[in-house]
Write a structure and sequence with these properties.
Blueprint (H helix, E strand, L loop, with lengths): L1 H19 L8 E6 H4 L5 H6 L1 H12 L3 E7 L3 H16 L7 E5 L6 E8 H4 L2
């Protein structure tokens, strides 16, 4: 016990240093829109009613600097789908500068909305 008392200032400094380190928490959230969902007739109310779109837009607005990466299936139909979704996101109030389209989704029947900080998304 005597050794701890002597080293208390050092322990306090170490604890303070550890607590000041940046936490590597990931702010990314992933939302999916299925092809079946997307194949329904679309309007502003329908798009805003999609749980994934509503959640992505809400999360985007929660923090300054968030952006949305739209990962879509690589074929032409996937690009058309992603472009239309981007247009709907803009109509819901997200500036196009905060939306990035990227092909190469692992699934041909869904599109993913990845929302988070720009530096995390671009890793």
């Amino acid at each position: 016990m005597i050794g701890i008392s002597k080293n208390r200032p050092v322990l306090v400094l170490l604890l303070g240093a550890l607590l000041s380190l940046p936490v590597g928490a990931n702010s990314l959230r992933i939302y999916s829109v299925s092809f079946d969902e997307w194949s329904r007739p679309r309007s502003g109310d329908v798009i805003a009613g999609f749980e994934a779109v509503r959640s992505a837009v809400d999360y985007w607005g929660d923090a300054a600097g968030n952006m949305i990466l739209v990962r879509y299936p690589g074929e032409d139909s996937g690009e058309i789908w992603a472009t239309e979704l981007r247009d709907w996101l803009v109509s819901l109030g997200i500036p196009s500068d905060y939306i990035q389209l990227v092909s190469g989704s692992q699934s041909a029947d869904e599109i993913r909305l990845i929302v988070g900080k720009r530096d995390e998304i671009n890793q």
